[in-house]
Design a protein that fits this description.
The complex is a heterodimer. Chain A is of the alpha+beta class. Chain A contains twelve helices and 14 strands. Chain B is built from five helices and five strands. Chain B has a five-stranded mixed sheet, sandwiched between helices. In chain B, a hairpin with a 2-residue loop joins strand 1 and strand 2. Chain B is an alpha+beta fold.
Chain lengths: 291, 168
Amino acid sequence: MKAAAFSYVRPSTLAEACAILRADEDARLIAGGQTLAPMMAMRLARPSQLVDIARLPELAGVADAGDALVFGAAVRQAEAERSPLVAARLPLLAKALPWVGHQPTRSRGTIGGSVANADPAAEIPLVLATLGGAVDFMTCDGPGHIAAQDFFAGPMMTALPADAVLTAVRFPVWSTPVGVGFHEISARRSDFAYVSAAAQASFDEDGVCIACTLGLGGAAAVPTRLESVALKLAGRRMTDAEIAEALEEAVAALEIMTDSYASPEYRRRVAKELGARALRDARDSAPGSRP
Amino acid sequence: MSAPVTVELNVNGATRTADVEPRTTLLDCLRDEMKLTGAHAGCEHGVCGACTILLDGEPARACLMFAVQADGYRITTVEGLAPAPGELGIVQDAFCETHGMQCGYCTPAMVLTAHALLARNASPTREEIVEAISGNICRCTGYGQIIEAIEVAARRLAVSNAGVEGAP
């Protein structure tokens, strides 16, 4: 379980990192390394060189852009988990972060790394897809921007150009007070999720849903926002019956993954149940809701 | 092989250097180059937690880092927890007293994880203790006495901290 030989470089600017990636297609970026290092130990990844971007100043810090929180790609998951700004402005991400790996992997793992890795069972990409966020990237040709719905292309596959550095992750912040819900099921605490569900909802003073969103992870090849659920529940009080009805159709239409751990039938049944729980939690924790 | 590079690491309060290949993990550097064998090599791909060390006081997996990435951090191994040679810290003592171990392979990592938990949270609930050690696998004990050890250490630390504050 030892990695194959590679060379190590720690560029001091983002431009330098981009130039290295452009010049060597076998170079790989490393920041937290909590997925890449085990892949290398198992020799499933054999990069020619590791480009360490963890300390690039361009990738640090969390900024409040008003309608979004913008995370530098190299912000550690543990830093986000402890951030009062995240707790206050992005309660859905705050609720999901304790489910990401274990505390010792969150102390190294980064927000941008998890998004770029695009594991279909990962929690941070799920929150990004559920809220309809976006990523920023940089190549030698200049900056770029991709919406979450176009970013996740398949299991561990993204629309990011091969020589790009993912620089920031943008999570939308709603202008109205929200309630959130997050549920996940796996074989053991913090193992890969068979299914996870993330929901957020907002209500007006009459107890009517202004907006809501539900995303499912682990179930399909990419983290998936169920647009039809949001459309059906907006303008309603989001009663348990309305939630169940909206989910029934949306989950039936999903293309569900299968593996040796969980059958598609099981995943579909759990997706419906966890989706309903996440939506009910979002409703019940939102100011003004009266189902 | 790729050419060795010199790394300068802050380990247990002292600056140590080693010449390692870039592919040398922090774990192998600590064990093989610096002869600090308290961090154990278990699965070597981030699952078992036996290689846990503290990076700036936070638990991290030494097998999931290369030594070349580790400069600039305060690295603590179990060897750095004892107050003096031949003595045990409060957490280590509690593990002895409750016999929070069997074969001992997971023990240094459990002790470091407990140490970091208690530094952050002086009176953790049982649930918080279980959550903190959930990334550390023990194949012998069933975890009961490990949890008890951490509860005992928390009570002892509370008494010892109160004693310091109340001292003349």
